[in-house]
Every structure is written in structure tokens, then in C-alpha cells.
Write a structure and sequence with these properties.
Layout: E1 3-8, E2 13-16, H1 24-27, E3 33-39, E4 43-45, E5 50-55, E6 61-66, E7 71-75, E8 88-90, E9 97-98, E10 103-107, H2 109-114, E11 121-125, E12 132-134, E13 141-142, E14 148-154, H3 180-189, E15 196-201, E16 205-210, H4 218-222, E17 229-233, E18 236-240, H5 245-256, H6 260-263, H7 266-291, H8 295-314, H9 323-337, H10 339-350, H11 355-365, H12 368-372, E19 380-382, E20 390-392, E21 394-396, E22 399-401, H13 413-432, H14 435-479, H15 481-498, H16 502-515, H17 526-541, H18 545-559, H19 564-571, H20 575-594, H21 621-644
Antiparallel strand pairs: 1-14, 2-3, 2-13, 3-11, 4-10, 5-6, 5-9, 6-7, 7-11, 8-10, 12-14, 15-16, 16-18, 17-18, 19-20, 21-22
Helix pairs in contact: 3-5, 7-10, 8-9, 8-18, 8-19, 10-11, 10-13, 11-13, 11-14, 13-14, 14-15, 15-20, 17-18, 17-19, 17-20, 17-21, 18-19, 20-21
Length: 659
């Protein structure tokens, strides 16, 4: 008769469904069914009587063979393998006997918070199909070593076996290695030895860094006996093998001639990459990481704004004065307008700061009362008669506060700098204040110091840069419009990202009001056109259906002049594509400048705004030149997308469209 057994919670916290784990291997039950836990404690304990069969070298996972015969895998956190054991302490050894509640792994919570690690912990039954079981604890609060979370029935086994899936194969051949055939197939389908930069492993998967992921035969890899799943994420080509991956890895290194010493430390590989990439690449990696959680909503907002352009400008079915338009526009523009709030939240996570700090600091920058100050009469002017001349609308402790011309709405860089400063102050106070004072004085002092720094330091820096920019714009445009087009068109997207573009837009408005036309606006008109070409090239080149699902809405948004989704979702993760797309826009802008293109009125953004460049007296050479510029930028960027758009950089991040 089958006996009844149970697994107790390994932590004190909340038991949740595996679907909540942000890793498709666990959420998809590739390695087996089970449950996950969200908890605040510092230890992970044994859920049953049994024996330790696996301890990860990186201290983030442990395998257990229960006395009942059930094999269990406990995996602490997501992507904790990259920490290389830091912040985790393995408290047991392989072969050690354990009981419910026996401490297995100790966690340094402060370190994990500083690294922004998600510590949701899956507990899987890797041979659960041999048992009848019920996941009884999902949705309930649990206590470590006490609360039952999985109940199962089966015949108890006294013989201890490894907590692994059944052996993949008993490979035979010249070397006599157990997994020879599997390893030979894996090497073949990743594109051969010459396509492998490095290979590491965690407790369930091989992690390849490939020269060119497009050379990998993913479908053949998925069909290979012994391969559970293939995941392409974070610049890695991951082949899920199961808990026996350590044995497979040893055979793989021997068969492939890979260096186990240079591949063993995933964190070291990342660090070396950062050193080789330089400041610009690390900056792009940082920006990509900050924007990754926002991209799906960013593209949704871009699509809503593009739809509104169609409904108003093209179809004329709704009026811009209607409530329908205003509500839809608010939906589409909210993230763009409140960028500092959203980016503050994401940057806080990136810098190891609590989310709410970034939200509050971002909200302070776009607080309505402060935004409205720039529409009131100025108190006085500072730096009068210089390129840094600025209006002062308020003071802080008698110190003049200088705001950018349109405030901080839609800006990016200021809030990132402010949150970075806040993260340093937070860590300082949290480390040096007495424990009994931290809970109140750490947030109090962090906000009290950081917000004024933002207004008194970041604001003036922005104004200085804007003053230099407008002076440079006037000088270079007066020197030669073609050269100005090359420079302005190439760097325009970066100016927008830094929030330094608004003075230029104001100059365009003043020129139209004064002269009836403007020659600066055509010098950055081709940026969105180049983006459309680049994304189209990626769509044609990539074989990844998920990547296409990201690129298509980004391309549509760029077509209508909303370029942020393309910039952050497609170009940032592909450094060479970004550089060449910017240059393609610059070349088109240079053509527009040399042809004397002019803007005569403001209208729709993107390609639909083209009629605004037609001379009221009729089509002239300037308009024809702008058309040529558009075609040139589009074609050059398309070629760039076909050449450089096949895959993201090794440091690029995937976009979770389910967010």
C-alpha cells in the first residue's frame, strides 16, 4: 500500500504558484512540478528527512533525496548563479543526512538588496511523475519546517540515489564519456567550437556565450535527446539539461576542448566584458537595464499615440477637442510625461535602492506646483548677458533654483543621476546610523539631502548644457547648414534622451514666428525615418519571433514620430546598430541642410508631418531635397539593420512583454 508523505516549507513566508517565478524554466515546470516561496528570512531549510545529493559551487541551490525516494531541487533566487557564491553560505555537504528544518543555505539579505536580486525560491520535485501528489500550500502563509506545502503518496525507497533526472544516455565512443553523444550534439547545434566564446553552468543549464547566436540551430537543439529547453536571454544561449548538468558540463569541456577555469566564474566573465567594453558600452548596458522593465508599456504608449495620429490627422474620425481624444492621449502620453517617476522606480532597483525612493524623487521633479513655476513671472535673472542666462522662479534657503525651460517632464538623465546619489546616501546612512534610528532617519535624511541636490546641482548643470547647446546650434547653423545637419541629425536622439532638446524646439518656433520658416527642424526630421529603416532591417534579419513582436510596434511608433520605443528597445541593446542608425540620420540631415529644406508650420510628427515642409508658394528644391534625405536615411539604416541587427550585444537584455 502506498505511503503518504509531505514536504514542509523550507522558509517562513508565502507559498506561491511556480507561474510567479520570473524564469520560464521554473515557471514552465521544465525541471518538474512544485511550488515557490516569497520570504524575508535569512535561511533556507530542509523540507523533509533525507540526504543532500547536490550542492551548487555557487551556493545558490541544493539537491535532496528524500527518504521517501522523492528528489527535490531548491533554487534560491533568480540568476543568483551570477553572484558566484557571494551573499550565500552553504551550510550542508553532499552526503549529509538532514531532517525537516535543518538549515541548508544562509542568505545575506543586505547584500542581495544591494544587488537587486529577486529571492523568490522554487522547490521542485524532479521525479514527481513517479508519485501522486497535491500542491496544498499555494496561496498560504507558511512556517519553515512546520507547514506542509506538498502532500504525496508512493512507495518509500531506502536506497539513496542522486537528485537528478534519469541519466540522459550511456554514451559510447572513443572517449567512453557518459554524455559524449549529447555533448557532441550540443556543440554542433550551438554552431561548433569556433562559435563558443565561453561556457558556464548552473545547477540545471549550460550557459553559452556565442560569437553569433544566429549560427545556432535552436530547433535541432530542442529536439536533441537530453535537452529539456533552450532559452536565449541576457546575451546567453542557455541549454537546460537538468540537475545532472554538472556531469554533462565536465564531459562537454573535455570533448569541446573548452577551458573550465576561464568558464567557471560567470560573474568574472561579466566583469571582464565590462572592462573590455569601456565607458560608453557600460553606460548603454546601464540604460538598457533601467529601461527594460518599462519597454512594454513604452511601446504600448507609443502605439496609442500613433493610433491617435491616424484617427485625427489621417481619418479625421475624432477631434482633438473631444473627451475621447483627451483620455486616449492621457493613456498614451502618461509614461512619457511622467518619465522621471517611472525611471526613478527602475533606476532605484538597478542601484540597489528601495523602489519607493525612486518613485518619490521622480515625483518631486514633476510635481505640478514646481512644473507650473516656469509659467509664472520670474523673480530675477542670473548670468544675464551670457549663454547661461537663466530665469529664477523660486529659491531654496535663499539659493536660486534654476529649472530647465520646460521642467523635468519627459527627461531621463537627471532622475538617473539623482537616484544614483540617493543610493549612495541610503547605503551610507543604513551602514552608519544606529540600528534603532535607521528605519526613520535613513529615508528622512536620504530624501532631505538628495532632492535639494537635484534642484540645486542637476538643474543648473542642465541649464549650462542647454546654454552651450543653443549657442553651438546658432554658430554651426550659421556656418553651414549641411555640416550642421550632419552633427545635429547624428546626435539628436541623445539630446532628446538627456532632455536638452527643448531649447532647440523653442528656437524653431521663434524662427517660424519671425521669418515664416525654420531651417533647424529639417536637420533632425530624418531621425525617425532612419529608425524605421533600422527596425525593418532587424525584423528581416532576426529569426526570433519574440524579438519581431517587440520590433513591429516600435517601428510603427517611429513611423509616426514616437521614437523612444525604438531607441530603448531596439537600438540601445545593439551598439553598432545604434551608432550606424544615428549616422544614417545625420547623413540624411546633411542632405536636407545642403538642399535648403525649411519647416513652414508645425503639424503631425513623423512622416505624416511631411506637408509642413512644403513652401506655401509651391514645392521647391528644399522639399525635394528633404525627400531625398528621407530615402537616404531610410536605406542606409535599413542596410545597417540587415548587417548589425541579427542579434543583441552580449550585454543586451531581453524584453518581458508580459510586464
Amino acid at each position: 500500500m502506498a505511503k503518504k508523505f509531505q514536504l514542509t516549507a523550507p522558509v517562513t513566508g508565502k507559498c506561491v504558484d511556480l507561474a510567479q517565478v520570473p524564469d520560464e524554466t521554473f515557471a514552465g515546470k521544465v525541471l518538474g512540478d512544485g511550488v515557490a516561496f516569497i520570504f524575508d528570512g535569512n535561511e533556507v531549510c530542509s523540507p523533509c528527512d533525507g540526504e543532500i545529493t547536490l550542492t551548487a559551487d555557487t551556493n545558490h541551490a541544493v539537491g535532496i533525496h528524500a527518504d521517501s525516494g522523492l528528489d527535490i531541487l531548491l533554487h534560491v533566487g533568480i540568476d543568483t548563479v551570477a553572484l558566484n557564491g557571494k551573499g550565500l553560505e552553504m551550510l550542508v555537504k553532499q552526503g549529509q543526512k538532514i531532517k525537516p528544518g535543518t538549515p541548508l543555505i544562509r542568505i545575506d539579505r543586505a547584500f542581495m538588496k544591494s544587488q537587486n536580486i529577486n529571492l523568490i525560491t522554487p522547490m521542485l520535485m524532479t521525479n514527481g511523475d513517479d508519485y501522486s501528489y497535491q500542491l496544498s500550500g499555494i496561496g498560504s502563509d507558511v512556517k519553515a519546517g512546520v507547514s506542509p506545502v506538498i502532500e504525496y503518496e508512493g512507495e518509500a525507497q531506502t536506497e539513496t540515489v542522486a537528485a537528478t533526472a534519469p541519466a540522459t544516455e550511456s554514451g559510447s565512443g572513443a572517449t567512453g564519456l557518459k554524455y559524449q553523444t549529447l555533448c557532441e550534439n550540443v556543440i554542433k547545434y550551438v554552431g561548433g567550437k569556433e562559435n563558443v566564446i565561453s561556457v558556464t553552468h548552473c545547477v540545471t543549464r549550460l550557459r553559452f556565450k556565442l560569437t553569433d547566436e544566429s549560427k545556432a540551430n535552436t530547433e535541432a537543439m530542442k529536439a536533441t535527446k537530453g535537452v529539456m529547453k533552450v532559452i536565449q536571454t541576457g546575451g546567453q544561449y542557455q541549454v537546460v539539461i537538468g540537475p545532472q548538468v554538472d556531469e554533462v558540463y565536465k564531459d562537454l569541456v573535455q570533448i569541446g576542448g573548452f577551458s573550465a577555469t576561464e568558464s567557471a566564474n560567470a560573474q568574472q566573465v561579466v566583469a571582464e566584458d565590462g572592462e573590455k567594453q569601456g565607458i560608453v558600452s557600460r553606460f548603454l548596458v546601464l540604460m538598457t537595464g533601467i529601461f527594460q522593465p518599462l519597454l512594454s508599456m513604452l511601446m504600448a504608449g507609443g502605439m496609442i499615440k500613433a493610433l491617435l495620429v491616424l484617427l485625427t490627422t489621417v481619418c479625421g474620425v475624432i477631434s482633438t477637442d473631444s473627451g475621447t481624444y483627451q483620455i486616449l492621449y492621457a493613456m498614451g502620453d502618461a509614461l512619457f510625461y511622467f518619465f522621471p517617476v517611472a525611471i526613478g522606480w527602475s533606476a532605484a532597483r538597478k542601484f540597489g535602492l528601495k523602489d519607493v525612493y525612486g518613485i518619490v524623487l521622480g515625483g518631486t521633479l514633476v510635481y505640478p506646483t514646481l512644473v507650473a513655476l516656469t509659467s509664472e513671472e520670474a523673480l530675477y535673472t542670473v548670468f544675464a548677458g551670457t549663454v547661461f542666462e537663466s530665469e529664477v522662479y523660486t529659491t531654496f534657503l535663499g539659493i536660486p533654483v534654476i529649472f530647465p525651460s520646460v521642467g523635468y517632464t519627459s527627461s531621463v538623465i537627471p532622475i538617473i543621476l539623482i537616484v544614483w546619489v540617493a543610493s549612495l546616501l541610503f547605503k551610507f546612512f543604513n551602514k552608519n546610523l544606529p540600528a534603532m534610528l535607521r528605519s526613520f532617519f535613513t529615508p528622512f535624511l536620504t530624501l532631505l539631502i538628495t532632492a535639494p541636490i537635484g534642484f540645486l546641482v542637476v538643474g543648473p548643470i542642465a541649464m549650462i548644457l542647454q546654454g552651450l547647446l543653443t549657442s553651438f546650434m546658432s554658430f554651426i547653423v550659421g556656418l553651414n547648414a549641411g555640416i550642421a545637419g550632419l552633427v545635429i541629425g547624428t546626435f539628436w536622439s541623445l539630446l532628446v534622451m538627456c532632455g536638452l532638446h527643448m531649447p532647440v524646439i523653442i528656437m524653431c518656433n521663434l524662427n517660424i514666428a519671425t521669418y515664416g520658416y525654420d531651417i533647424i527642424h529639417p536637420l533632425f526630421f530624418t531621425g525617425a525615418i532612419a529608425s524605421v529603416g533600422a527596425v525593418l532591417g532587424v525584423i528581416i534579419r532576426t529569426k526570433d519571433a519574440e524579438e519581431r513582436s517587440v520590433c513591429i510596434p516600435a517601428m510603427i511608433s517611429s513611423f509616426f514620430g514616437i521614437n523612444e520605443p525604438t531607441l530603448y528597445a531596439v537600438l540601445f541593446p545593439r551598439k553598432m546598430l545604434m551608432y550606424t542608425t544615428f549616422l544614417s540620420a545625420g547623413i540624411g540631415s546633411m542632405i536636407a541642410g545642403f538642399c535648403g529644406s525649411k519647416l513652414y508650420s508645425f503639424g503631425a510628427s513623423g512622416i505624416l508631418g511631411l506637408p509642413c515642409y512644403i513652401n506655401p508658394e509651391g514645392i521647391d528644391f528644399g522639399f525635394i531635397g528633404l525627400l531625398i534625405a528621407m530615402v537616404a536615411s531610410f536605406v542606409l539604416a535599413l542596410i545597417s539593420g540587415l548587417v548589425f541587427g541579427g542579434k543583441k550585444d552580449a550585454t543586451g537584455l531581453n524584453i518581458d512583454m508580459s510586464l
